[in-house]
Amino acid sequence: MEDRFSNIDEVSRLLEDHSAVRLLRKAHAPMIVAFLWRAFREERRQAYGSQELNTLLSDFLFAANEGAGEGGKPYPRTSRLYLEDWSKEGFLRQYYEAGAAEATFELTPATEQALVWIAELDKREFVGAESRLLQLFNMLQDLTYGSSTDAQDRLEQLLAQRLELDREIMELEEGQISRLDPTRMREQLKLIEETAAKLLADFRQIEENFRQLNTKAREEQINRQHSRGQVLDEIFSAQDAIMETDQGKTFTAFWAFLMDQGRQDRLDQMAAQLFEQPELEAYRNHSVLPRLKILLVEAGERVDRTTTRLIEQLRRFLASRTFLENRRAGQVIEEIEQLALQVKNEPPPQRFFSDIAGKPAVNLVMERRLFQPADELQLASDQPVAGNAVEVLTEGLYNQMYIDPEELKGRIQKMLRGKQQVSLKEVVAHAPVEKGLSEIVAYFGLATQWEPRQKAVINTGQQEKLFYESEGQTYAVELPQILFLK
């Protein structure tokens, strides 16, 4: 729990340095907040190209200046200058994607916090106190249950849950359906909407945290003068350490949860079913839930692409260090050659003018061993007996099994038609394994090759079983969940 905010200097530093506070202190803060809210929140967009965002801001400024009447233009600067200033002050993040011709703009975590805080100020609708209390109670109950080491206590809680489920099942069998009243339904929908919006906003902070951790690790390596092997070991150890932080573990667990096709389908199904209720149908057009799965996947992919780019930057850093070392070695060799030419005609008069560390290794020709013929084969019997070649099974020489990777790729591409991802279990269910365990290993090899290109995900946090038949018997193989992406 934070207790440093009782310190005046700490609070003063935060209010001076934090970008969210600086945004709200700007003279044109209402214009900035209104435009960013319309462009990113209302449009449900994560990022914009430079030209598109510049056009949107230009139209927004034109409408704002026209509405000001004869009092002059309150926003006289061009849209491009505003975007450049907002990027410099940390309200927007401007960067270039690989191979992109224009810059990309996205909100920074501080700006997300400012927008969330602005939204919290305007509570025109009712406050769902009961839903929040129930959420707090359930979370506290789950934490207490999950952290308890008392077997009897946990058993009593499970029995109480079973009794409650049995009671509800009996009521349903008797035709008694208990349904939430409209107020409770709207109350819980509002709470879900707020949680979903905060979850999407958190992704920018997660991405920024990864970027800061990686930058810190690179700066530490740059400031140290180590050998290339030490730098390599320390940089990749730092990268592993980033993924072992609470932030890294949380994101890895979230990504594994989200990449499960069954959970994605269930999320879409629940969102569609929710707005079929007459009491909530009017909220569909303004809700984030119908597109929540797409927005979460996009946000998660952005974080995943960021970590991939960071690793690539580390690789380039090592390559640049290697290039500099090789160039320096070449310069030293040239200097030695020039010195040798200078003393070619006037060698040093003293007998010993240089020392070599250690004794030189001299390999003389006469030290090599003479040729020795191979030992003669000694047979155990002087009268060898002819063997029977009929007893040798030669079918294995002709029945060689070959697995064509292109055929497996074709099956996967066929299953991906109209889908964003497909699991190996679904591929095997549609096209049963014909060549046993070797075919499954070939699928796993394809996933290993495609994972660095973000065409596959090997989810080690979840296991699944694959079944295949061979010689009339059914075999089961348990391996990490494999997802092939479009």
TrEMBL record:
Kindly state which keywords UniProt assigns to this record, in alphabetical order: Coiled coil
Lineage here is:
Bacteria, Pseudomonadati, Bacteroidota, Saprospiria, Saprospirales
Q: Which residues form a coiled coil?
A: 148-223
InterPro entries this protein is in?
DUF3375
The name of this protein is DUF3375 domain-containing protein
Source organism per UniProt: Phaeodactylibacter xiamenensis
Superkingdom, natural source = Bacteria
Which Pfam families does this UniProt record tie to the protein? DUF3375
